[in-house]
Amino acid sequence: MAEKISFHDQIARNKLKSAVLLSVIFISFLVLGYIISLVLDPSYFFVVMIASIIFSLGYIWYGYYNSHKIALASVRAKPASRTEHRALFHAAESMALASGLPIPKLYVMESEEINAFASGRNPQNAVICFTTGALKKLNKHELEGVVAHEMSHIANYDIRYMTLTAVLVGMVSIIAQIFLRSLWFSSLSNSRERDGKLQIVLILLGILFAILAPIVAQLVSLAISRKREFTADATAVKFTRYPPGLANALKKIKSEHISSREKHRFAKSMAPLFISDPFKRKISGIFSTHPDIDERIKRLERM
Questions:
Q1: What is the CATH superfamily name and number for domain 75-156+245-301?
Q2: 274: DSSP letter
Q3: pLDDT one-digit tens code per residue, 251-299
Q4: Which entry of 144, 150, 229, 262 is annotated as an active-site residue?
Q5: Is 112 known to be catalytic?
Q6: N or C: which terminus of the chain has fewer CB atoms within 10 Å of its end residue's CB?
């Protein structure tokens, strides 16, 4: 029999791993900036840094404060009805009591797939949206498990955390693009007096890092997303005190066969928000937005 694991330990470890991964993106940003500063004139690079930070923050600020509106509109969600979706309201009220959070606004979207997502910058502005398929196919304990998972994202401020990640990834990408484009319009040989061979090496190093840094930052962002899913699963157990509820819901999700028509209901940018990848893609490992569903089930069964 597999050794039992503590949901408290799982929460703490995954939060620590997320923080470490976030620091990797920040370090990539600093290293890229340092390398470019060696190649370009420092005053020119300072302007680039400021411009990229302002652009990234402005873009993300809008998305951060309107994330729930954008998400709901993209799936054409409608407010849940207390009479028609009574089980959803009961589950949300129970988990609000268990978590100490305010009851989020509840929405429903048309889809035969079992899925759900949460959005909103803080518990006071949070929303949870369920598919009609989830409300039909999940029993009371499974529905509570999924609600608890989504409320865990709210409790852990995952939207805020992933917004910070997006800001850093955006800044890395913007600076890299500006640097690569500047090579076509500037005479780097005159930017600083130094040995020609050293200058060439620095330029090549700068180009290499400018290409790789955004890719690495995006991969790290995906890794953070996967860790936040594990954390939400463990926090859901903390709220429900009943691991089989969420585990059985994930088993039902795994066994579903979704038509291509259903898959086209959602924008691909929405995929990380859902409890499972709505496109049922065969991508695994470092390129996936979600952890392996079998691994999630195994961890829940050991709690």
A1: Metalloproteases ("zincins"), catalytic domain (3.30.2010.10)
A2: B
A3: 999 988 665 555 556 667 677 788 988 776 665 677 888 889 999 999 9
A4: 150
A5: no
A6: N
